[in-house]
Write a structure and sequence with these properties.
By secondary structure, the protein is of the alpha+beta class. It folds into two domains: 24-212 and 482-506, Periplasmic binding protein-like II (D-Maltodextrin-Binding Protein, domain 2), CATH 3.40.190.10; 269-475, Roll (Dipeptide-binding Protein, domain 3), CATH 3.10.105. Helices cover 33% and strands 22% of the residues. It has helices spanning 4-18, 55-61, 109-118, 124-130, 153-158, 170-183, 228-237, 248-255, 288-297, 300-308, 336-345, 364-377, 388-396, 414-422, 434-445, 449-465; strands at 27-34, 66-69, 72-76, 79-84, 90-95, 131-136, 141-146, 191-197, 201-206, 217-224, 242-243, 261-264, 269-275, 352-359, 379-383, 403-408, 469-475, 478-481, 485-487, 505-506. The strands form five sheets. Strands 8-9-10-1-11-18-12 form a seven-stranded mixed β-sheet. It has a five-stranded mixed β-sheet with strand order 15-14-16-13-17. A four-stranded antiparallel β-sheet has the order 4-5-7-6. α7 packs parallel to α8 (248-255), α10 packs antiparallel against α12 (364-377) and α14 packs parallel to α16. The longest helix is centred in the C-terminal third of the chain and has 17 residues, at 449-465. The protein is globular. The two termini are 42 Å apart.
């Protein structure tokens, strides 16, 4: 007995070292009603679009070397530390000891290299243009060698600007393939994948080995509920604990219910109307006057009040005002008389039939309001609904025509928005201008913050002068919180509307 005591003490010490801080036993369950149908492609970070929506699941199942989490705008996550070389061309990361994936496999720098090189999402081209080599120095140390200094490497690698920094298990992915991985993803995040009923729900279970902490709640159920009114009804009945992206009228009902809380996000999201055919000389939208007419036709403040209860500031540029390097400008004035005059100048004194209007799903009052204001000005469009995953695919595939309404909520800064949507090579751009492309390349190399800011301001001003878009409003997602939730953690993650799921607390 005396000889075994030191062994017991040693085991206890080792357990204390390995166990995450704040270890406890997860209990209870939380249900979250999503505003869209959850797509299996969102289980895999390698194909993440430049949108915030998939990160509601990606950050639950997966983790990254660095990323935003509560208390940290850019926090050391799987990496316990990182450093940039003085010349700005090398970034070195050191992994935390003892990291494991949900299936028990150790997480090493080989997995980091594999995950980065496997990434083929919206920012893949930009990352490959800048990163020369990923060097595995040891199982714990990895270096990223850039071709030249790139001030935005950490923005693209360590935020929701892309999914390139999320780490997946090389051995498992190699065994099951991409399709097998999407059917049953394995990650290193706070929650393990349990099951998926397509179009219905995804079930996740707490991962006690998560490095940061053992999650408080044992089971998280993410439900696909595209109808806002249905989400509000489910919230009031207690069927779900969170109702995401509530439409204005439904949010008003939740706000008036004393059992509920209504909170708004603080993330970098924005609505705008895209002129997909402005680059085609044969299209009416090639005429700047018609694009300007759309801008003056929209009463952005009234749209804000109807769809967002006044929480969503009207926008004048498609870079959200909360982002670094965002140009702070007033929106175009609501002037229906000017809109009609511009139509007449362009040869349409009686207005014209503008074809389909495809809005991003999940925000019916915003979409209907835009259609109503356009119609009132003489720009007659017909709304064509679609599914969220199909909308993203058609947008990136350049299959959308005429007018459509986009909404983008991924983080990053003004440069990451320019990269995806404004420069001609952007994954979601329908065209561009040589001078904007040149300015984008200049700012990407500029390490002086003030000079870089001036370049990005100039790009944004050019998009305004050329009426490349019709910005609508910055989005503050309205989320209903049910009475069982003690700590909802909305706004705890920088630039994200999603809760920090491992930190959610239920009432006793």
């Amino acid at each position: 007995m005396r000889r075994s005591l030191p062994v017991v003490l040693l085991a206890a010490v080792l357990l204390a070292i390995v166990a995450p801080a704040g270890a406890q036993t997860p209990t209870g369950h939380v249900s979250i009603a999503w505003h869209v149908t959850i797509a299996p492609s969102w289980f895999d970070p390698s194909t993440a679009p430049p949108q915030i929506t998939p990160f509601g699941i990606l950050y639950a199942i997966h983790d990254a070397l660095v990323r935003p989490y509560p208390g940290h705008k850019m926090g050391a996550s799987l990496a316990e530390s990182w450093r940039e070389s003085p010349d700005g061309k090398t970034y070195e990361f050191k992994l935390r000891p003892g990291l494991k994936f949900h299936n028990g496999d150790p997480l090493t720098t080989e997995d980091v290299k594999f995950s980065f090189e496997r990434y083929k999402g919206a920012a893949a081209t930009t990352l490959k243009e800048h990163v020369r080599e990923v060097e595995v120095v040891s199982p714990q140390v990895v270096r990223f060698h850039l071709k030249e200094p790139w001030p935005d490497f950490m923005t693209f690698f360590g935020t929701t600007a892309s999914g390139a920094g999320l780490v997946v298990p090389k051995k498992y992915v190699t065994q099951v393939g991409d399709e097998g991985f999407r059917k049953h993803p394995i990650g290193a995040g706070p929650y393990k994948f349990v099951s998926h009923k397509p179009g219905v729900e995804v079930v996740l279970e707490a991962f006690p080995g998560y490095w940061r902490k053992v999650p408080n709640v044992k089971t998280v159920v993410m439900k696909s509920v595209p109808e806002s009114t249905t989400r509000a009804v489910m919230l009031k009945s207690g069927e779900v604990d969170y109702g995401f992206a509530l439409d204005g009228p439904d949010a008003e009902g939740i706000k008036a219910d004393p059992r509920m809380r209504l909170v708004s996000s603080k993330h970098a999201s924005i609505f705008w109307v895209e002129f997909a055919e402005q680059w085609n000389p044969k299209s009416p939208w090639h005429d700047r006057r018609l694009r300007l007419a759309v801008n003056h036709a929209l009463d952005r403040q009234r749209i804000n009040e109807a769809a967002c209860l006044g929480f969503c500031p009207p926008a004048g540029v498609i870079v959200p005002r909360v982002m670094d390097f965002a140009l702070q400008v007033e929106p175009p004035a609501y002037d229906p008389a000017r809109a009609k005059a511009l139509l007449a100048e362009a040869g349409y004194p009686g207005g014209f039939e503008a074809g389909d209007f495809v809005p991003i799903p999940g925000f019916p009052t915003v979409a209907e309001s835009v259609v109503n204001y356009l119609t009132a000005a003489g720009i007659r469009v017909k709304m064509r609904p679609t599914e969220r995953a199909a909308f993203y695919a058609d947008w990136q595939g350049k299959k959308l025509r005429g007018l459509f309404m986009a909404a983008v909520g991924n983080s990053g800064n003004a440069a990451s928005r320019v990269e995806s949507f404004m420069q001609s090579k952007g994954a979601y751009a329908f065209g561009g201008y040589p001078d904007i492309d040149d300015l984008f390349l200049q700012q990407a190399r500029e390490r002086d913050v003030k000079k870089r800011e001036a370049l990005l301001f100039k790009i944004q001003q050019l998009t305004i002068d050329r009426v490349m878009y019709a910005p609508v409003m910055d989005l503050r997602v309205l989320i209903g919180i049910g009475p069982r939730v003690a700590k909802h953690t909305i706004t705890d993650i920088w630039m994200s509307p999603w809760p920090a799921v491992e930190d959610i607390e239920l009432k006793p």
